Amino acid sequence: MKTIDIKIGDKTAVGYEIQMQNAMLVLVKAEKGFVMCGYLDIKTAEKLGDAACIVRGVQTVDDLLNAKIVEMTTQAEKFGVKLGITGKEALEKLS
User: Fold this and answer.
1) pTM for the whole structure
2) How far apart are the first and last CA of the chain?
3) Region 41-64: what's the mean pLDDT?
4) CA of 55: how far to CAs of 10, 23, 76, 93, in Å?
């Protein structure tokens, strides 16, 4: 597992890259929520009330920051996250 600190404005988010058996699991956690790769389940995040967003086709934290949001929970939407913004823009709203 690789852990990466990411500066988002005046806050710090934490990125994780985990090599699973057949793919990378990539996640960045900010203060109010997180952006994750498609490896994880948005329905569970919704059920738990988390502010979560999904990007697809990423292998690294840098990929995640530049990828477009394709799904999100209701809570993420309440923080201003919109479909099509980048992972970094979403993290700014979740910081």
Assistant:
1) 0.95
2) 23
3) 97
4) 24, 14, 13, 16
pLDDT mean over 75-85: 98
Helix (H) or strand (E) holding 79: none
Cα separations in angstroms, 84 against 17, 24, 46, 71: 23, 22, 19, 9
Joined tokens for residue 82: 């919109």
Structure tokens at 73: 């929970």
Q: How many CB atoms lie within 10 A of CB 68?
A: 15
Task: From the options 3.30.1980.10, 3.90.640.10, 3.30.70.20, 3.40.50.300, give the CATH code of 2-93.
Answer: 3.30.1980.10
3-state secondary structure of 63: helix
